Amino acid sequence: MDFTAQLQAYRARIEHGLDTLVPAATTRPARLHAAMRYSLEAGGKRLRPVLTLAAADLFGGIAESKIENLRPATAGTNTGPAAAGNGAKSKTQNALPVAVALECLHTYSLIHDDLPCMDNDDLRRGRPTAHKQFDEATALLAGDALLTLAFQLVGRHYAGSPALCAALTREIADAAGSEQLIGGQMEDLLAERKADATAAELEFIHRNKTGAMLTAALVAGGLCGGATESQLTALREAGRHLGLAFQIIDDILDATADTATLGKTAGKDARAGKTTYVKLHGLEASRRHAREQSDAAKADLARLPGGAPFLTTLVENMAARTR
Amino acid sequence: MDFTAQLQAYRARIEHGLDTLVPAATTRPARLHAAMRYSLEAGGKRLRPVLTLAAADLFGGIAESKIENLRPATAGTNTGPAAAGNGAKSKTQNALPVAVALECLHTYSLIHDDLPCMDNDDLRRGRPTAHKQFDEATALLAGDALLTLAFQLVGRHYAGSPALCAALTREIADAAGSEQLIGGQMEDLLAERKADATAAELEFIHRNKTGAMLTAALVAGGLCGGATESQLTALREAGRHLGLAFQIIDDILDATADTATLGKTAGKDARAGKTTYVKLHGLEASRRHAREQSDAAKADLARLPGGAPFLTTLVENMAARTR
Description:
2 copies of one chain form a homodimer.
Chain A: H1 3-21, H2 30-40, H3 47-56, H4 96-114, E1 123-124, E2 127-128, H5 130-133, H6 136-157, H7 162-176, H8 181-194, H9 199-225, H10 229-256, H11 259-262, H12 268-271, H13 277-302, H14 309-320
Antiparallel strand pairs in A: 1-2
């Protein structure tokens, strides 16, 4: 299967997983679940869950029988068909619940980030943000609920493989915690307030606000696939470089692309007086650093089984956007 | 040890656990960790973690060697002394990290509940609420971080006992999720908006907003202590009745006690036009129902080893407040 077909296949699996693993919009309280689904259904690239499924696919996988895959542990809380993705026989099937969990975490962080007390954004991917479509209290609770759902999914769907369940819980909780994802958000807020961030502060923000969850997505896939310690290290290193490349490229695009190409308002960072990679290092050095980071990510991926061709192409395509 | 001395001993252990297991206020980002600690240090009864430690104490406990108790799994994220509570040799020591996790979850729900878009409270336990002391964005992120920290603590400190780790993750995530704790918050908001809630709606709110986490606290203790399935069921039933009793008693006190006795503003619910148990059922029936629920909780506790004297007295003392 070529890259594009594989990417589409992963995304289709993820959409199916989101639909079946997240409580139905009719589940009480309906307004809360409708808001959770509204934000999840806004789409986006599904980058994090794609990384998880692709990383899991690199390895032999853990015996299906050991994982209570897509089978809810408690009767009362199931809301979708019990055997989501039936027929999709693949070892990445194991990784689907945690892939969905990562998308829930990403979506929660966007909902809370958009709130009036944070970035105060009215639009997200061309649609009203959650607090505009519903109201602030509902958006706040929908974010809280998506954050919690990530751990419900891990607790429920890996119950038959407790060591995997424990490792996934630790991995994604630490990545989402106060010293990584949320720490990055907080430092980002503080940097905005004082207008001038240093290079070290910007790297802290990028590494934690973006890099932590990309890394956790790759490592979670590796854990589901049964990667060895040294393979997990390669995934972790690749995630770190990918996260920095991703954020530098985002800053370059904000400074150079037009709004139509970007699919979101261009030049927003500069107008907001926000410290970006481009502002600190200039366009030339930023392009060079983005290239260095994506090359480093590719070097890490090359150490994985088969040279991880899908993930390598993903990194190359991302880097190609800035030329 | 008599009841009061035991309660004090549990609380001292919990304060110590909070201090050593939550990142120091100097950990980067310092403002975020300071806000998390500010809210945790506001005090309160520590009811949930007390329930956890007391429930764990009823049983034989799981071999210490199987639990990486208070020893962080990853070096980089430790911020306090590695061996918190050294010298406090007790089988409930095992239960301390999840007891702290439950207090983190409770505190996060209070911080978010106090935000302007929710209850918009300026004071909590006589001190400025988190968003008043810091700012809204910091309070939002501190709540998110405490919610996440609960799962970091479970993932980290029970790594050596993966089955326990997985069971605790599932138990507390489901209790805190969109169909229980957050669901109760959402229904509470919706009920306030329409001013008149039905008895069934009020019971849904009470059962989920309060009962779910009290139940999870007892069950988490039982899991740490090594309770059997039928003992876990007794704890679960006791938690359900305790949760309802607790909430009815809270409504009775709001209607009858003066502010000084209560330690918070009395009559607030009635003035806010909020539907309470007393408003729906009258004072007489409310007192009877509170008694029925606390008696039912005591009957469940009586099925546990030794008749669970500490927990039984806890329930009796709570019920006695309304007479």
